[in-house]
Each structure stands twice: as C-alpha cells, then as structure tokens.
Amino acid sequence: xxxxxxxxxxxxxxxxxxxxxxxxxxxxxxxxxxxxxxxxxxxxxxxxxxxxxxxxxxxxxxxxxxxxxxxxxxxxxxxxxxxxxxxxxxxxxxxxxxxxxxxxxxxxx
Length: 109
Ligand code: FES
Fold this sequence. Notes:
The chain has one helix spanning about 50-55, and strands at about 5-10, 20, 25-30, 35-40, 55, 60-65, 70, 75-80, 85-90, 90-95, 95-100, 105. By secondary structure, it is mainly β.
C-alpha cells in the first residue's frame, strides 16, 4: 500500500466532496466527522462529477442529477437509477493530514 497525502481535514467541505487527482485519476473525498472516504469522482450513471454536483445525506452520496445514491463507505448503489457501484479507495488520517492509496481500488466491497 502506498498512501499519498492529498489534503487536510479542513479542506474537505462538511457535506460535499473534494476533488483530488492522481495523474488522470479523479477521486472525490468525503468526510463524516473525522472519518474520510474516497470514491471515484464520476457518478457511475451519467459520468457527472460527484465532487461538483453530489452531496452527503448521512452516509449516502447523493448525485443531484438523477438523485442516485451510493454508500460512501462501500460505493454500493443505494438508490437507482445507477446500477454500477463506485470504486472506492483506502484512506488514512495522520493528525490533520488525509492520505489515499490510489492503487488500492475496491469495487462495491
Ligand atoms: Fe448521477 Fe444520473 S448522473 S444519478
């Protein structure tokens, strides 16, 4: 596992995602309290950026384009129309710094 520092906790909005990139890979980072979760940035339904048009409703990411919902921890679909889960990435917090393992992609797990 190789964790890369991407931001600090204060950089992540309370109810929305923060977009971070690793080369061509675009990831949305969400925060619930002091827990941090990372998913692919593009909604699996219409390929819109979840860090731009998505928001958190409890532990669900809501895509405001068609109101699809995903579990922020697992990426699983919680409300249609999306049918494909989001890829998720392991995260780590050290002090106030947030790290992502971009190589540790998980799909709906
Ligand atoms: Fe996200 Fe349709 S683009 S639910």
